[in-house]
Amino acid sequence: MGRIFLVELEGRTYRCRFCDSPLALADDVLSRSFNCRQGRAYLFSNVVNITLGPEEERLMLSGLHTVEDIFCVCCGQILGWKYVIAHDKNQKYKEGKFVLERWRIEEDVAEEFNLDARPGSSDEIP
Hints:
By secondary structure, the protein is mainly β.
């Protein structure tokens, strides 16, 4: 196995809960109302730092889909799945989209601090 190069993301991101690798931008969340066997899941338009498993047919609550499991490129943990083909015409919007199971990811809230601010300096009039 060679060296792993991770794609770094700027802004609010979702990261692998197991190894902290960046996976997706919060701006790429399409839906927070998906469900999986283990609970809630999010639908994303784009995900990075993953590998894909083989295509397989899977019967889900919304019908039959051809999917590929998603694995973290760094630690190998399964994270969710990618919709390859939606067999129901009402589900076609999912094709090419990614589902990350909520319990397998964590949100990285990048707080920006003003490092130039000095304690006691404010706009208040004493």
